[in-house]
Design a protein that fits this description.
Strand order of the largest sheet: 1-8-7-3-4-5-6-2
Shape: globular
Radius of gyration: 26 Å
Helix content: 40-55%
Number of domains: 4
Strand content: 5-15%
CATH architecture of the largest domain: Alpha-Beta Barrel
CATH class of the largest domain: Alpha Beta
Bound molecules: phosphoenolpyruvate, magnesium ion
Structural class: alpha/beta
CATH superfamily of the largest domain: Phosphoenolpyruvate-binding domains
Amino acid sequence: MTLALSGHAIESGIAVGQAHIIQRNELEIHEYRIEPAGIEAEVRRLDKAFAAARKHLESLADQMGNSAGTTAEEIIRTHVMMLSDAAITDLSRERIRSKQCNAEWALQLQLGDLLVEFRQIDDPYIASRADDAVQVVRMVQQFLTAESSTEPLGLIPERLAQTVVVASELTPGELAVLRERGIAGVVTEHGSTYSHTAILARSLGIPTVMGVRRGQTLIKEGEQLVLDGHYGIVFADPEESILKHYLLKQAESERFLQSLEAVRDRPTTSLDGKRIRLMANAERPNDLQRARSDGALGVGLYRSEFLFLQGNPPGEEEQFEAYLSALQALEGGPLVIRTLDIGADKGVDLLDFKNLRSNPNPALGLRAVRLCLRELELFKSQLRAILRTSAFGDVRCLIPMLTSVREVLAVKSLLDETREELAGEGLKYNPGMRLGGMIEVPAAALAIRELSPHLDFLSIGTNDLIQYALATDRVDESVAHLYDPQHPGVIQLLLWIFKAAEEADIPLAVCGELAGDRRYTRLLLALGLREFSMQPRNLLEVKQVILETDIVRARSALQEWLQSGGNDPESSLVNFLDNSQIDR
Ligand code: PEP
Ligand code: MG
């Protein structure tokens, strides 16, 4: 009889296979006292475990084979670095000495303190760093305990094709090894959307459902599983009709993925011959690799705040190095660096702006350029780093959350001041570096004519533009159903933006999620978009739609829809535009 279990949808895709359950005895960490004469020996025992854990991670990295160069490599590197971090090593040694306790317990105490610190930071990215700390400490504890000789993955069959692994939880390194062994999918009892293992599952494209409560108890070893990563459902021992349905869907999605390969090397040109520029959004070094391999011309949105969310705020030098290495990965650009967009849902705690969190409406508060124009020292160090990078290639600077001309002028005068300082110090920069503004506040959209003379390009941030236009918080689940990109008000706003930008003769891109969502590609083309910037993983899908779109037809379908008042009860606007392409 079919058993249906649900969890968090992590990576879409369908997996059909036999369940293989990975049992892992939860470690029980006990405290015991160490006599003063044995303290230094206990410290050495801990150091030996650190070394063994490091060796284990390095060998995992070796086993990763094809996965190398993906996020896995980066995560394993993070874990190796954590193994040398004084917050874990020195302070645990200290605890053995001060508490006269065993190494396992010293680590446990130290982990507890670290987690308290992490918990004070209400940010999903930082929370995933806490997962890293837990994983690293657990591994060292494993090497300290008697079971340490049994490596967690030691019992897993070498080839796991057609197998869906069911685990309590997995470390990113373990997931990378499982992928090498050919697993079809992953089910875990624990884990969240922002954990590193989840990020890795997405970047490796392994259908994954996490947070399946009691999955290891309810699923039996060897039974057939169907995993639907799109909806976060797992069927154990599925009845014939379910299995048939999913096998068909699986074949369909494989055909779809194969069809994407066919577009990889083709120029991005619409059916009626218009050239379209595809750019990537990037936060991390690996986004750049995927962006290059999937044909992005450059980076249209480098979310610089992610550098600030990884620990202590970086200084000018560290930012300069990060931007320069992104520029080098792109072989000279273009690289559009967005200045800090911190505030609202993005980690204000880190920068000592804790008071911002208590604002009644953080999304309407001191965020992005508003915050930067108040925290001038912080902002200047970023402008210096961006300008210095501009000496090495096609670097452009993008201001988020612009509302008024006054803000643009304030940023420009800071840029002038910064240029003078750099020149005085003999540091190079590109005096003609282009400055762009994000259009994501409805008032800025309506004021494009006033803003454009002061800017070199515009980029629409649809994520925020839609939330502000519809007064619908983009992170509030209770109003998620109201967040509608096809709302007539949103469409009118977009029409206005494209018309105003054309009249002002200023280049316009879209870098919000809509640009990477193939359902909206034809709408954006019909509106007049010629430059899309999106998550690298969506590049080929969107390109495929572009190649199959006659823009002239899409445009006249849009006009038809607007003239009819958009009241077709049978169809949504995007379906109407899709239908306009049929019967060629
Ligand atoms: C947007 O708002 O569409 C955007 C690209 O910026 P972010 O999602 O980082 O706010
Ligand atoms: Mg935004």
